[in-house]
Specification:
By secondary structure, the chain is mostly helical. It has three helices and no strands. It has helices at about 5-60, 70-85, 90-100. α1 (about 5-60) runs parallel beside α3 and α2 runs antiparallel to α3 (about 90-100). The longest helix is centred in the first third of the chain and has 55 residues, at about 5-60. It is rod-shaped and about 90 Å long.
């Protein structure tokens, strides 16, 4: 038997095509996972930047006059929202709240 028959050639072609499809699928899956990881990292960095900015804003406010009660409640509600969304840690929330309350 020197040459494979028609069925042997078809079987070999099917194996090669199946392997190529599996490899291609794995490459696409890995690329999608990598892209998702990069997206999640960007989202995390944006949330951290927003949390730092929110925590810094009350500290940068002038201390000459005590804040109005409505303004204080608005800031506390904003902090509570950021905390419940997971943007602020418990420590960050407590520190920023303490600054607002004096």
């Amino acid at each position: 038997m020197g040459r494979p028959g028609l069925i042997g050639m078809a079987a070999r072609t099917a194996v090669v095509a199946g392997t190529a499809t599996a490899v291609s699928g794995n490459v696409q899956r890995r690329q999608a996972e990598k892209a998702q990881g990069q997206y999640e990292q960007q989202q995390y960095e944006q949330q951290q930047a927003a949390a730092q900015q929110a925590a810094a804003q009350p500290a940068a406010a002038p201390q000459a006059a005590p804040p109005a009660e409505d303004d204080m409640m608005a800031k506390l509600q904003q902090l509570a929202t950021l905390h419940s969304q997971g943007v602020l840690t418990d420590e960050e929330f407590a520190g920023a709240k303490a600054k607002i309350l004096g």
